[in-house]
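quick one, 336 residues, struct below
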Amino acid sequence: MADTTSEGAFTPDDPRKPWHWHPDLPIGHPPLFVWPPRPAALAGWLFGRGYLRSQNALHILLALVAWSFFTPSLERMATFEAGWIFEIWLRNIVLFSAVTAGLHLYFYTFRRQGDVHKYDPRPLARDDPKFLFRDQLWDNVTWSLASGVTVWTAFEAAIWWFWANGLVGWLSWADNPVWFVALFPAIALFETAHFYLIHRLIHWKPLYRFHALHHNNVNIGPWSGISMHPVEHVLYLSSILIHLVVASHPLHMLYHGFFLTVGASFGHTGYQDLQIKGRSAFDVANLFHQLHHRYYNCNYGQAMAPLDKWFGSFHDGTAEATDRVMKAARGARPGG
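---
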């Protein structure tokens, strides 16, 4: 791993200034789309810290908790009523906030990890007019809860109504246990493609004015994950509607929702991993997306799939890549 004095990734305003910390460069992608195939490496990634021993296990656990204890009966959800929709909204508020606030408290309030494996050394912004209340944290909290969780709940309520009325397919464990399990990583892979396409779309000049709100967060924190304009929330969270097309179980849909929301909180911590007693417990974020928040016109997708590499927008963290993307941007933010 590189330390704070390592050469490699640089800020756009001062090419001589490195990140506070970054992993070994160049960064790459997991062994999902490689030729010839690497089955041993793929299995290690799938059952290791790449997927199963990662935040994805938490998303599955949250889905189990939500489905088992905090979801109204299907009979109630056959008719749109404010009562059960409010219950889902409140459940989503509580579970999302518990994880996101926990991450913020751990990394930023109590600073239990200090700056160990933190990419950007700067604190979250205060007294900055581009944020609501001139405060980055409370701006992010407001957009995340008032708009983000509300849009998420609206999509979820619609899916529940379709299920409750028998209008879309329902996949049970007994139907196909192999596909039931495989659908969890398949959802993550589908979301990677959806996110790339939507992200490129909202970097298009006529739509970037909505995405610019999220990009106010150059230095990011957990609450930055789904701090977005309502228009972007609709676009970003719309991938959950795949459950109206592909037969699935509520556990898959709930996992998908937490992947989109809680997963974004993890991905915006600004830290590579979470350390417990000086040892890396599991990865929380990656330099891949941190590079996008700093340079804007690269790494539109997610590290899981090499879509940016295929379409020429990949930043691997090196100084050469920084020079390339800065030259392409000509010093301007996308959409500007």
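Residues 39-329 form one domain.
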